[in-house]
Design a protein that fits this description.
Layout (H helix, E strand, L loop, with lengths): L8 E3 L8 H7 L10 H4 L1 H12 L4 E6 L2 H12 L5 E6 L2 H12 L3 E6 L8 H10 L5 E7 L1 E2 L4 E2 L2 H10 L5 E5 L18 E5 L10 E6 L1 H8 L11 H4 L14 H17 L2 H22 L6 E2 L11 E5 L4 H13 L1 E5 L14 E5 L6 H18 L7 H10 L2
Helix pairs in contact: 1-10, 3-10, 4-5, 6-7, 11-13, 11-14, 12-13, 13-14
Length: 399
């Protein structure tokens, strides 16, 4: 028998759950793209995005996923033959590095493994050794969705400043924006990339690039930028279509406007961060209790190093795949696959999974996901510590 009938819950780290309000905002006839509401709403929409990124500088929208945002950011400030430093703490750090390499950019990788964040002292040492300032940018993933590692952006900026290095600080915030605290201007970030399908609660399709005046000046020094990826006309358009390099992503924009309104109504981005933090602590409380017995392990040991948007877990092969399958088929809750975590003993990653808790989530949703996981472990005979749900409930009761 299955108990999965009813509304399903996609508890993966993106695409995240879309609010009914966002879906209703998008469920409308196609608008006029030459005049009227959609044209007039753009200035406020851009300002709303900037408030989420905590920047007073520039925001560009692309019709793309996060990979497109990676390429857009790189294309505006780096030319073939330029050198960058890629700080990697998981699959997506390497993915951005690979994107740079594909553009002819020489990417130097500094590897920090899959269980701990970037060490700023190592970054400072590498930059001090670059006396000719050949490195033009530092690529950092704020939250690597595969490992759930949260990197200290401000500490990396401090390391760069201590080394006296002029490289741009470019940060991938695709998993973190709207979930984990991110202060673009306060932390000295030059370029930040994000996407619509995670903390912003909109379907995949919008890539976002935020950039500082320093990055804008670097763009001005470029000999050539692909016409589509060029951010200049997007942030200072003479005509509406220039915001998007062509036809506007009309219905995504209506959904984005609604999601930004929801963020504002909640109390602004500070309130959203606080909600994500509290729910993450409830999740961790349950997982840490379950991990006291049996095979379950959190990928990141220290709470301060964990994302508030996603938690990566190891439970041993084949338990990860079995638990995901059981939860989906029996309870209607879909857990995320283990991505980029395979080992020689587990080449298919059957011992790994991830729990997404980003965007449109509340206490009831978190408790339902945890309850499904515990029921699955009981059904599958996976040993675990007792009292996990009570530990999570206690944290929630303290809100």
């Amino acid at each position: 028998m299955t108990l999965a009938h009813g509304r399903s819950y996609l508890a993966i780290p993106g695409p995240s759950v879309m609010p009914d309000r966002v879906l209703r905002a998008m469920h409308r006839a196609a608008p006029n793209i030459y005049d009227g509401e959609i044209v007039q709403m753009m200035p406020d929409l851009i300002e709303g995005l900037k408030s989420v990124a905590r920047t007073r500088h520039h925001a560009a929208i692309y019709i793309s996923n996060g990979h497109g945002a990676w390429e857009a950011a790189l294309s505006n400030v780096l030319a073939p033959g330029d050198q960058v430093l890629s700080l990697c703490t998981g699959r997506f750090g390497h993915g951005w590095h690979e994107m740079a390499a594909g553009l002819g950019i020489a990417a130097q990788v500094e590897e920090f493994g899959l269980h701990a964040p970037v060490d700023p002292s190592r970054v400072e040492a590498v930059l001090r050794a670059d006396r000719s300032h050949a490195l033009k940018a530092v690529l950092l993933t704020h939250v690597d969705t595969s490992t759930s590692i949260l990197n200290d952006v401000a500490a990396v900026r401090a390391a760069m400043d201590a080394a006296g290095h002029p490289a741009l600080l470019m940060v991938d915030c695709i998993a973190s924006m709207g979930c984990d605290r991110f202060e673009m201007d306060g932390w000295g970030v030059d370029v930040a990339v994000a996407a619509s399908q995670k903390g912003l609660m909109v379907p995949p399709g919008l890539g976002l690039v935020f950039f500082s005046d320093k990055a804008a000046e670097r763009r001005n020094q470029m000999e050539r930028v692909s016409r589509y990826w060029d951010w200049q006309p997007r942030v200072a358009p003479d005509l509406f279509y220039q915001y998007f390099g062509g036809t506007a992503p009309t219905h995504h924009l209506y959904g984005l406007r609604e999601s930004l309104a929801m963020i504002a109504e909640e109390g602004g981005i500070e309130a959203v961060w606080a909600r994500h933090d509290h729910l993450a602590r409830a999740i961790w409380a349950a997982l840490e209790v379950w991990a006291k017995a049996g095979p379950l392990e959190l990928n990141v040991a220290e709470r301060s190093d964990r994302s508030r948007a996603v938690t990566a877990l190891h439970i041993g092969a084949p338990n990860g795949t079995a638990l995901r399958k059981w939860c989906a088929e029996k309870t209607g809750i879909t857990l995320g696959i283990g991505l980029g975590m395979s080992t020689e003993d587990d080449p298919k990653g059957d011992g790994f999974f991830r729990l997404g808790h980003m965007g449109h989530v509340n206490a009831a949703m978190v408790m339902s996901a945890l309850s499904a996981m515990e029921a699955g472990m009981l059904a599958l005979g996976i040993e675990h510590g007792s009292g996990g749900l009570s530990a999570a409930a206690k944290v929630i009761s303290e809100a």
